[in-house]
């Protein structure tokens, strides 16, 4: 599978792959009790435990089970039922990367992700829901041996990435908004874009940055 970049007109890059803190979040309201529970290490049934038969049936009505079902498809790199996961005008906010507007752009992102990490597996650690709002805590593991990803050439490095999705569903159970949090800087370190934390190269990079900052202050910039 070749990597397909989402349509440029539908993607807003608020922060780069190395991690940043740009104000690109949607107006997603999540109950405080769901936020607290999402960081509690409670085991849950992983998406690989969803039966093959269930994957070929109609999507579950219950919001939590529907999230499990959708993640089970993603774990299998199966985007054939994207129309049953995302609404046509859905918006996915990958905080470390940018905003993907519309089902086609979101599918394009995942096509590129799966092409870059051919052995990628996604495990659910916890799923919580209230009404049509769902919080999903997950762990993704794979090796960057496939196509380029977000302009970065494959490095052959193994990656273990943990994150949390805050999902809003419509009355039909389709995703209309999803904000995805993960450690962008950690991802960049694992694929080799940034030096390992506290390594000689990492300390040298920090020292160079601080030196440039002091120089700018002296120059009044």
If you had to describe this structure to a student in words, what would you say it looks like?
This protein is an alpha+beta fold. It has one domain (8-195): Nuclear Transport Factor 2, Chain: A (Roll), CATH 3.10.450. The protein has six helices and seven strands; from the N terminus they run E-H-H-H-E-E-H-E-E-E-E-H-H. A seven-stranded mixed beta sheet has the order 1-3-2-7-6-5-4, with helices on both faces. The model is unreliable at 1-9, 14-29 and 41-48 (pLDDT under 50).
Largest sheet descriptor: 7 strands, mixed
Query: Architecture, CATH level 2?
Result: Roll
Strand portion: 25-35%
- Mean pLDDT, to the nearest integer, reads 82
How many angstroms separate the termini? Answer: 47 Å
Structurally, how many domains make up the residues? 1
Q: Main sheet: which strands, in order across?
A: 1-3-2-7-6-5-4
Low-confidence stretches: 1-9, 14-29, 41-48
Rg (CA only): 19 Å
Per DSSP E runs of 2 or more residues, the count of β-strands stands at: 7
* Shape field: elongated
Structural class: alpha+beta
Order of secondary-structure elements: EHHHEEHEEEEHH
Total helices: the number is 6
- CATH class reads Alpha Beta
State the helical fraction.
25-40%
Could you name the CATH topology? Answer: Nuclear Transport Factor 2, Chain: A
Give descriptors for this structure:
Nuclear Transport Factor 2, Chain: A; 25% strand; disordered N terminus
């Amino acid at each position: 599978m070749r990597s397909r970049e989402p349509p440029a007109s539908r993607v807003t890059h608020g922060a780069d792959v190395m991690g940043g803190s740009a104000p690109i979040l949607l107006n997603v309201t999540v109950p405080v009790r769901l936020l607290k529970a999402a960081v509690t290490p409670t085991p849950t049934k992983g998406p690989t435990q969803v039966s093959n038969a269930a994957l070929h049936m109609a999507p579950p009505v219950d919001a939590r089970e529907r999230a499990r079902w959708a993640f089970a498809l993603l774990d299998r790199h199966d985007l054939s039922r994207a129309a049953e996961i995302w609404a046509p005008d859905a918006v996915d906010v990958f905080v470390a990367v940018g905003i993907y507007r519309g089902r086609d752009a979101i599918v394009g992102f995942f096509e590129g992700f799966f092409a870059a990490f051919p052995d990628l597996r996604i495990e659910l650690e916890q799923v919580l829901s209230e009404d049509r709002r769902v919080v999903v805590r997950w762990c993704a593991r794979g090796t960057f041996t496939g196509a380029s990803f977000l302009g970065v050439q494959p490095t052959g490095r193994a990656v273990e990435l943990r994150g949390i999705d805050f999902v809003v569903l419509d009355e039909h159970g389709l995703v209309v908004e999803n904000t995805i949090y993960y450690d962008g800087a950690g991802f960049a370190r694992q694929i080799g874009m940034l030096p390992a934390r506290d390594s000689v190269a990492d300390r040298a990079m920090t020292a160079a940055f601080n030196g440039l900052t002091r120089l700018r202050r002296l120059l009044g910039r």
